[in-house]
Amino acid sequence: MHRQGYVYNRTAANLRQRVSSTVALVINDLSNPFFAEFAAGVDEALGVKGYVTLLGSSNESPARQRQVLASLMEHHPAGIILSPAEASDAADIELAIGRHTPLLVFNRELIGSTATGFDYDFLGLDNRAGARAATTRLLALGHRRVAFYGGHAESSSCRERRLGYTDALQAAGIAVDPRWMIETVPARLEASAHADALFATDPAPTAAVCYNDAVALGLMLGLIRLDRHPGTDFAVTGFDDIPEAAVGMPPLTTMCAAPRARGRQAAELLLQRATTPSLPRRSVIVPVQLIERESTPHAPHP
Amino acid sequence: MHRQGYVYNRTAANLRQRVSSTVALVINDLSNPFFAEFAAGVDEALGVKGYVTLLGSSNESPARQRQVLASLMEHHPAGIILSPAEASDAADIELAIGRHTPLLVFNRELIGSTATGFDYDFLGLDNRAGARAATTRLLALGHRRVAFYGGHAESSSCRERRLGYTDALQAAGIAVDPRWMIETVPARLEASAHADALFATDPAPTAAVCYNDAVALGLMLGLIRLDRHPGTDFAVTGFDDIPEAAVGMPPLTTMCAAPRARGRQAAELLLQRATTPSLPRRSVIVPVQLIERESTPHAPHP
DNA sequence: CTGAAAGCGCTTACAG
DNA sequence: CTGAAAGCGCTTACAG
Questions:
Q1: Residue A11, domain member (yes or no)
Q2: Of A64-68, A133-137, B60-64, B243-247, which range is least confident?
Q3: In terms of domains, do A264 and A115 share one?
Q4: Which of A137, A109, A26, A5 has the alpha carbon at shortest distance from A75?
Q5: Which residue out of A6, A16, A49, A57 would a mutagenesis test of the B interface target, given it has the greatest number of B Cβ atoms within 10 Å?
């Protein structure tokens, strides 16, 4: 039968059974290894359960995201996993996908989601606790002047990480200096270019909690250009634990988010809801773990 | 009508029309930014033409690749774009997908493909010409002792790049020293660890053509550990132009392969064949371009 | 228990 | 030109 070249037509079966064996996966930025790993994890877990992944990429554009969702909806997926573009509006998403297709949102919250009865599951990282842990560790190493470096202050993840940072400082009885919260485009190049902003005050910080690994790696390059030595006379932490973090110079202390495992988890959560629509809305916030490497030396003696 | 929550059912339409609006994309390694960018390019170009991407990832396992292809085939895609796992067998692939679904193979050739009448298009990089150009440039900078560093010698792309390297040396009348062709796992960490192999001979090389950017970035770290200074007293070239190459220390001279553009091109080629099955087999070899950065200084004076 | 018929949501070919 | 019927490849509910 297989010799005759017969292949089962699952789309016909799905039509008759009124079920779907596909899940749509919409990613904001595939060229970021964090999201690429997440996608790989989703695809892996879906495959195990007999589902096939319909891929869409929004390239951080809410307009493209709408188009992509509309196009994917025409294939009637069993559910949607959405890692939203920056500043995605909940009403917008609802218009594109309706209220009948299970939705799992990853990583950042949608804007204005509480107003309507539009319901979806959420999977995200514990950004606040993670940044708090990183900051607390720097304080334990003797640093007293610690900056928060990089990211867009309006983005939800940056806001949360800044909160964790101030949590830790306040718990240690240290005043927060707003000049030490420095905003940059969350990318290596821009982070590298703004390193001098850290040394605008006297005394200057001896350590920086960075928005993410890309920013931290960029900052380390910028520090070297300024004749500072990350890992020796300046401490730097990141967030994400991308593959580059472990082989940086020096290797980067960071918060591990395990994106591939998050992808598998997202697939599990979505399929649970697809099979049991009566489940209450769930919001899963995953703890992140401190990975200590050589980029965080003790504070210099005063 | 849209207000009523109606969404067009394209799968039903496809069933009736006996056409498909999906294309399967199977990727060997999504966590490699080169392939993630390629996937993003494919998805972008397919979306423009009204197709949806069915994603599959093989994680470099031929066994998983077979499963993934079989599962995707049940959705009767209009065609398949395959970036094969290492050592993929043509007969294996044919068994999984049959001879009626258009196939485009990207990046590496399948093993044993010429025997049967199994037909597919191919899109790859001009590895040989690229490595030749990199080597020729190092020679023009005055280097006379140039190594080829990294990669698995059996892989088709490594073989081709080594050929380009020897081409350039022979054209310059320089003998190839087999001790200067050094094999490593094609990853940063392993490349970093083997740097000392470059200095096993006396005199030692003053420059290295690396298998790819990951290897080159790893080698630069390894050189520093050995108190050598890439970009000052040693020259290094890469291959791929991944985002990290431009912001390395020093920025890396490399061959630009533009993976996102390759993805778009792959989608175009496949859709052409899907619409015009009578086309003859095509093999498109894309030239790569030298991007010169600071990692390639002149040879030191003897 | 077996087998022929109806139906999923569309499109197409055909009758009026 | 319009509208009802047949059919894509499956599954399911129903008749024998």
A1: no
A2: B243-247
A3: yes
A4: A26
A5: A57
Hey, what are B235's tokens? 């020259």
Distance CA(B151)–CA(B160), nearest Å, equals: 11
Task: Specify the CATH number for the domain of residue A211.
Answer: 3.40.50.2300
User: Best of A9, A30, A220, A260 to disrupt the B interface by mutation (most B CBs within 10 Å)?
Assistant: A30
Preceding omega of B33 cis (within 30 degrees of 0): no
The low-confidence residues of chain A, meaning pLDDT below 50, are: none
Nearest Cα residue to A113 out of A85, A94, A98? A94
Q: What does the angle CA A214 – CA A216 – CA A221 come to, to the nearest 5 degrees?
A: 100
Query: Within an 8 Å CB–CB cutoff, is residue A98 touching chain B?
Result: yes
Spatial distance from the CA of A154 to the C1' of D16 (Å)? 70
Are both B103 and B170 inside the same structural domain?
no
Q: Is the pTM of this model over 0.90?
A: yes
**pLDDT score recorded for residue B219:** 96
- How many separate domains does chain A show? 2
Residues B146 and B81 in one domain: no
Task: Output the CA–CA distances (angstroms, integers) from residue B118 to A65, B76, B112, in the order listed.
Answer: 38, 19, 10
Q: Which domain holds residue A96?
A: 16-124+259-286
State the pLDDT confidence band at B249, using cuts at 50, 70 and 90: confident
Same domain, A113 and A131: no
Residue identified by tokens 């869409």 is A56
